[in-house]
Design brief:
This protein has about 425 residues and is α/β, with parallel strands linked by helices. It has 13 helices and 10 strands. The protein has an 8-stranded parallel β-barrel with strand order 3-4-5-6-7-8-9-10, surrounded by 6 helices. Strands 1-2 form a two-stranded antiparallel ribbon. Bound molecules: phosphoenolpyruvate and manganese (II) ion (MN).
């Protein structure tokens, strides 16, 4: 480009100088004459030629630009045609049950292009340009795949609103507060929390009966007895229940005790469990895995939906990072991304994501501001004596202050 622009300038200069010499000799003026008339004529001639050249070079530039536009159009038509062929290949491969990405074939295509390359681009540039074209065609196929997912907003534009017994809704106009102990420990403990939640206006009580603990020697939960205690306390205080199920064999017996089945973070990748809860008619709260990407999270939800159960709620509960000042890292960006990608309700568990009581209010507010449909928080009558997560559960007064602060923010609908 620079070279092209500089060359004509030298040519103009040469042409002007030649012309001056010709005029000089024709008029018989002494070369270098400083007469005013000669100066005027030179100046006129110079500017006239410059204008003439400018018009000529603009015409040339327009011509070159026009050619570039044409080439761009041709390239666009070609890469679009190429993408269509790749899609056709994808359909054939799908029928054959073979993967769409074939690294060997891609290598061959790149080598063929590099061999055919006569410049001016280097082989590395050719490789990187075509690699991008190949990747874009592959991405197109995964976008289409995404389009077909049941969890995707592309297949279901409206927000899914889950209607629970007692007309409690999740994902609709009002926010949902889910609160309760980490583990169901006793009738008294559970009833005390239930009474406090009812007083505070909470409609859904959580409580773990099957506890997936890091150590096998830690409290494992009361099992079916725990579910019974939770149900009875909830019935007494007009609450709905949510509890984690870890074994496909427990789903059937648990159904009469829980209004929402929770799938915990450690089981987000337990595909047999996901398939099993996909086969029952009961809302499911799916927790994001400890180190799951959002794509994996949505695919886990897809496992449930693909089996027929469309009542799925997603809950961000923090992911593992190198940060030590929180138990996990609350990924707030997950909320708007999940809401954008999926039509399912999205909640945020502020307790397990942060593991610290002093930042629950701002984190809950941030979650709601980011578009969360609900919040989960752990509450225990006496957290110090709790059999699990003693350090992070709120006592009843702390919960009331927390809930009032969240409501006062105006973000809780
Ligand atoms: C829980 O909610 O009781 C729990 C164990 O959380 P998570 O699965 O997110 O660790
Ligand atoms: Mn807990």
């Amino acid at each position: 480009m620079c070279r092209e622009a500089r060359a004509p300038r030298y040519r103009v200069k040469d042409r002007v100088n030649l012309l001056f010499m010709e005029i000089d000799s024709k008029l018989g003026w002494y070369h270098g004459s400083s007469s005013l008339a000669a100066g005027g004529l030179f100046a006129f001639t110079k500017s006239h030629l410059k204008k003439e050249w400018k018009v000529m070079s603009n015409v040339e530039l327009d011509g070159l630009r026009g050619r570039l536009d044409q080439i761009n159009d041709q390239l666009l038509a070609l890469i679009s045609e190429r993408a269509q062929i790749v899609q056709q290949i994808g359909v054939v491969k799908e029928k054959q049950g073979v993967p769409k990405f074939d690294p060997e074939r891609e290598k061959q295509m790149l080598e063929r292009l590099v061999d055919a390359n006569k410049g001016p681009f280097t082989s590395a540039t050719i490789r990187s340009l075509f690699k991008q074209i190949f990747q874009a065609s592959l991405d197109l196929q995964s976008d289409e795949h995404k389009k077909a997912l049941l969890v995707s907003r592309k297949s279901h534009k409206e927000d899914t609103v889950i209607v629970l017994p007692g007309d409690v809704t999740v994902g609709g106009l009002s926010s949902l507060m889910v609160a309760g102990p980490c583990s169901v420990e006793s009738e008294l403990q559970t009833r005390t929390v239930a009474a406090a939640l009812q007083k505070a206006g909470v409609r859904v009580m959580r409580g773990g009966a099957f506890k997936p603990r890091t150590s096998p020697y830690d409290f494992q939960g009361l099992g079916m007895d725990g579910l019974r205690i939770l149900r009875e306390a909830a019935n007494e205080y007009g609450l709905l229940t949510i509890s984690e199920i870890v074994d496909p064999g427990h789903i059937e017996p648990a159904i009469e005790y829980v209004d929402i089945i929770q799938i915990g973070a450690r089981n987000m990748h337990n595909f047999e469990l996901l398939k099993a809860v996909g086969e029952v008619n009961k809302p499911v709260l799916l927790k994001r895995g400890l180190a799951a990407t959002l794509e994996e999270f949505l695919h886990a939800a897809e496992y449930i939906m693909s089996r027929g159960n469309t009542q799925v709620m997603l809950i961000e509960r923090g992911i593992r990072t190198y940060e030590k000042w929180t138990r996990n890292t609350l990924d707030i960006s997950a909320v708007p991304i999940l809401k954008q990608e999926s039509h399912l309700p999205v909640l945020v568990d502020v307790t397990h994501s942060t593991g610290r009581k002093d930042i629950l209010v701002p984190c809950a507010k941030a979650a709601l501001a980011a578009g969360a449909d609900g919040i989960m928080v752990e509450v225990h009558p006496d957290p110090a004596t709790a059999l699990s997560d003693a350090a992070q559960q709120l006592n009843i007064d702390e919960f009331n202050t927390f809930f009032n602060d969240v409501k006062a923010s105006g973000l809780y609908r």
